[in-house]
Amino acid sequence: MVDSATSEIWVEKYRPDSLDEVRGNKALVNRLKEFVEDESMPNIMFTGQQGVGKTAAARAFAKDKYGDEWQSHFMALNASDERGIDTVRDKIKNHARMSTVSDHNFKIVFLDEADHLTRSAQPALRRVMEDYHDRTRFFLSCNYPNKLIDPIQSRCSVFSMKPLTDEQIEGLLEDIVIEESVEYKQDQIERVARIADGDARKAIHTLQSAVGPDGTIHDENVDMVTAFPDKQRVSEILDKALVGDHDAMSDLDSLLASGIDTASLADAFLQEVREREMPEDVRAKLIDSIGDVEWRVMNGSNPNVQFNAFLAKAYVARHIDVIPNYEEDNE
């Protein structure tokens, strides 16, 4: 049984210790495994959104290559915190010029969020990469590689990391809750994975926040930490709206009263409309309506009024005689 308030931070505890443990992006990971034994490997640039494993892959590579001595061969800096030319001239250059203390030909400088480097710092980094390539390799991670000057990009092999799929994140979360002896339900794992949107770090943080002191994931905790409504509940509300059941509005009002994030609720309805079988022109109208709801709420309109207006439009869609299974209801 786990006390989530006193346990270790899971995102650190379950950080991969080797490339074999890195989730997703298998082709990229396999290429990195080949580089582990390659003393002539190039500089590396990882691109992709937050939480796809850029930092995890760099650290795992260092652990595989250097073993127990990995920390003495691996220097990590975050360019969003240390982004100026002084950082490049002092910390990075001084470390890069040092020889390795083992049989390996090079050590690694990992620069996270490298796209935050200032325009004056980037040419200085390029020179360091050139001058000390015989003893240092650079691993750069960035969300927006176009913010880096071409001479830096051209000195790196670029690896684009894709977000993890919901299924991959579900597998990761299931492994964690089993290891931590947490009681859970499968739909709770699915909800956390869905709201993470491919971000493994976000998924793990959210999961740990949803575990109660009794070592159980409770639905109300999932509601609170994900700010994302239960898929089944949203589906039931839409079902009722389509047949003109006024309980749809009271159910919706209850959902909004629980403090659910309105943008997340709009996303949930959008996902439900996209997944349902219906004529494409009807789907397009409902998607437009959801967009109107989100825009109006963002600009100060009453969420209850706007979402109930969407339900009313969904009911109108019922009377379009081309929608499957609705013709019988209208006879």
Category from helices, strands and their pairing? alpha/beta
CATH fold descriptor of the largest domain: Rossmann fold
How do the helices and strands follow one another from N- to C-terminus?
HHEHEHEHEHEHHHHHHHHHH
Shape, principal axes of CA atoms: elongated
Poorly predicted runs: 321-331
Q: Mind describing the biggest β-sheet?
A: 5 strands, parallel
Distance between the termini: 56 Å
Helix content: 40-55%
Number of strands: 5
Domains, number:
3
Q: What integer value in Å does the Rg equal?
A: 25 Å
Instruction: Name the CATH homologous superfamily of the largest domain.
Output: P-loop containing nucleotide triphosphate hydrolases
- Describe the strand arrangement of the main beta sheet, using strand numbers: 2-3-4-1-5
Classify the beta-strand content into a percent band.
Answer: 5-15%
Mean pLDDT: 87
Number of helices: 16
CATH architectural name of the largest domain: 3-Layer(aba) Sandwich
What does the oligomeric state look like here? single chain
Text of the CATH class of the largest domain: Alpha Beta
Record keyword descriptors for this entry.
3 domains, alpha/beta, Rossmann fold, Zinc Finger, Delta Prime, domain 3, five-stranded parallel beta sheet, Helicase, Ruva Protein, domain 3
Task: Give your account of this protein's structure.
Helix 7 (166-179) crosses helix 8 (186-196), helix 11 crosses helix 13 (262-275) and helix 12 runs antiparallel to helix 15 (303-317). A 5-stranded parallel sheet has the order 2-3-4-1-5, with helices on both faces. It contains 16 helices and 5 strands. Helices cover 53% and strands 8% of the residues. 36% of the residues are buried. It has 331 residues and is α/β, with parallel strands linked by helices. Mean pLDDT is 87; it is low at 321-331. The chain folds into 3 domains: 24-160, P-loop containing nucleotide triphosphate hydrolases (Rossmann fold), CATH 3.40.50.300; 166-226, Helicase, Ruva Protein, domain 3; 231-330, Zinc Finger, Delta Prime, domain 3 (Up-down Bundle), CATH 1.20.272.
